[in-house]
Design brief:
The protein is α/β, with parallel strands linked by helices. The chain contains 18 helices and 12 strands.
Length: about 325
């Protein structure tokens, strides 16, 4: 795993980072090195389980993959910048930053879902809350513009008659936002799990609204494959989706082991991770069909917020064929 700092430097210095093209063998058409983007969130435990149990390597080796490397990102925006630069083959990422990236020219498709819902609005313990109007004048940290959390928070405020401009919404990654609420530098955060569980364990804040209450059954993280991988190496994408389905189903059947694997990889407290699994309103699912309407709705919301120039369609965003073959 590489640090976010290293990855952002690599994205900025694309020429230096493209040593990877030699590993992938783009000149010969062979792919030997699979590059995976992900975020340290309990939303994406299918990746951590597959990575730490060696399933990516094991399942893809017969297809010529000799190296699998994952790259950690704090939020989806820099992750999609890396994919736009050609530095990732697949990505576990929020649907909203993927939408923004496609609008900016990213050649990629959603090939599977990862999970739905699973983020919480958390306020400092001493701050009262009854309705969304109570957030006016408050300082709330969340992911950057164009991400799932930013899109949902702003749209939910508008739907409840609260001008988003009346709330000081500041962009932070989960680590910075968790530190900020603990230090009293912000009034609240809107973050994916396990951050709400971490804050609750520290006693510095409590959940007041879950994201499913803001937008019921909304899509959150998705599995994205680059257009070149889809077109030139569909067999590899087939196996990627099969391995993702395998890991998703394993985690649903073995949540305590999934928590232990995730905690070991990220350095987080395993009991807090288990609490996150118990307390969140999210659901792990690999089926892209169940999130289609929600993802397309994000394009309309982002258009209304001025983040993208035109709404996108299902065909712009999805390739269902790999999941459908995996389940046939």
């Amino acid at each position: 795993m590489r640090s976010l700092t290293a990855i952002l430097l690599a994205v900025a210095l694309v020429a230096a980072f493209t040593f990877v093209s030699g590993c992938t063998g783009t000149e010969t058409g062979d792919v030997t090195h699979l590059r995976i983007g992900y975020q340290p969130s309990t939303h994406q435990v299918s990746h951590t389980t597959a990575m730490e149990k060696g399933w990516w390597q094991e399942d893809l080796e017969p297809l010529g993959i000799t190296q699998v490397t994952d790259y950690e990102f704090g939020t989806g925006a820099p992750e999609m910048q890396a994919m736009l630069a050609g530095d990732l083959d697949i990505a576990f990422v929020g649907a909203a930053p993927f939408v923004a990236a496609v609008s900016s020219g990213l050649d990629a498709k959603i090939v599977a879902a990862v999970q739905t819902q699973g983020s919480d609005l958390v306020l400092r313990t001493e701050i009262p809350y009854s309705t969304p109007a109570d957030l006016a004048g408050k300082k709330i940290a969340t992911f950057p513009p164009g991400t799932i959390q930013d899109t949902i928070l702003r749209s939910w405020l508008q739907e409840n008659g609260v001008d988003p401009a009346s709330v000081e919404i500041v962009a932070m990654d989960p680590g910075a936002a968790t530190t900020a609420i603990s230090a009293g530098q912000v009034d609240g955060v809107f973050l994916p799990h396990p951050s709400p569980a971490i804050i609750a364990a520290e006693g510095t804040g409590r959940t007041v609204v879950k994201s499913g209450e803001m937008m019921k059954d909304h899509a959150c993280c998705v599995l994205v494959a680059s257009g070149s991988l889809i077109r030139d190496h569909p067999g590899i994408v087939d196996q990627i989706v099969k391995t993702h389905v395998r890991a998703t189903e394993y985690n649903l059947e073995h949540p305590d082991e999934a928590a232990a694997i995730y905690a070991s990889k990220t350095g987080q407290n395993v009991e807090t991770v288990k609490a996150s699994f118990r307390d969140w309103d999210g659901t792990w699912t690999a089926d892209p069909h169940v999130i289609t309407t929600s993802v397309v709705e994000y394009t309309e919301l982002q258009y209304e917020l001025g983040y993208i120039s035109n709404p996108l369609t299902e065909d712009d965003l999805f390739d269902f064929s790999f999941y459908d073959r995996a389940r046939a």
